[in-house]
Amino acid sequence: MMRTSQLSEASRAVWIRRCQKQTAKGRPSVPKGIMVVQSAPVDSAREKEYNDWYDNTHVPEITAVPGFVSARRYRVHGPAGSDDAHSYLTIYEIDADELTGPAAELRARRAAGLTRESGALRLDPPPVVTFYELLE
């Protein structure tokens, strides 16, 4: 899990608010859904650029969308490296009654050019994005 010291100031504020959110019983709330993204840098020489863009540009843009409340990033453990098709995984928590609203808003912001892409992001194969809803 990423340490808060590795997050941008905007991402750190979102993470802190998420940790402080409590249910009536005093336990942390559970998000209604998650968006899981599998991706990778275009090549190992651009991995630092990819991580800088992801942590300081991409995550803050996604968590600025209403309903997206936090993000955690992971890297494949072990001998697999950055040249693997999807060596990174990001889990975005979504706190909304309906997951379609945040997903639609994210698509609208992308279509309007309000999110920035990076040339360091591998597009072949493209990132895999999957939404999951909480089973209650």
Tell me the name of the CATH class: Alpha Beta
Strand portion, in percent?
A: 15-25%
State the order of secondary-structure elements, H for helix, E for strand: HEHEEHE
How many discrete structural domains?
1
Task: Give the count of helical stretches.
Answer: 3
Please give the share of residues in helix. 25-40%
Termini gap: 26 Å
| Helix-strand category | alpha+beta
> Major sheet: size, sense and barrel closure?
4 strands, antiparallel
Strand order across the biggest sheet?
A: 2-3-1-4
Number of strands: 4
Poorly predicted parts? 1-5
How large is the radius of gyration?
Answer: 15 Å
**Apparent shape:** globular
Question: How does this structure look, described?
Answer:
With 136 residues, this protein is α+β, with helices and mostly antiparallel strands. The protein has one domain: Alpha-Beta Plaits (2-Layer Sandwich). The protein has three helices and four strands. A four-stranded antiparallel beta sheet has the order 2-3-1-4. The longest helix is centred in the middle third of the chain and has 17 residues.
Protein traits:
Alpha-Beta Plaits, 4 strands, disordered N terminus, four-stranded antiparallel beta sheet, 136 residues, alpha+beta, single chain
Topology:
Blueprint: H1 9-20, E1 33-39, H2 47-63, E2 68-75, E3 88-94, H3 100-111, E4 128-133
Antiparallel strand pairs: 1-3, 1-4, 2-3
Overview in brief:
This protein has 3 helices and 4 strands, in the order αβαββαβ. It is an alpha+beta fold and 136 residues long. It has a single domain, classed as Alpha-Beta Plaits.
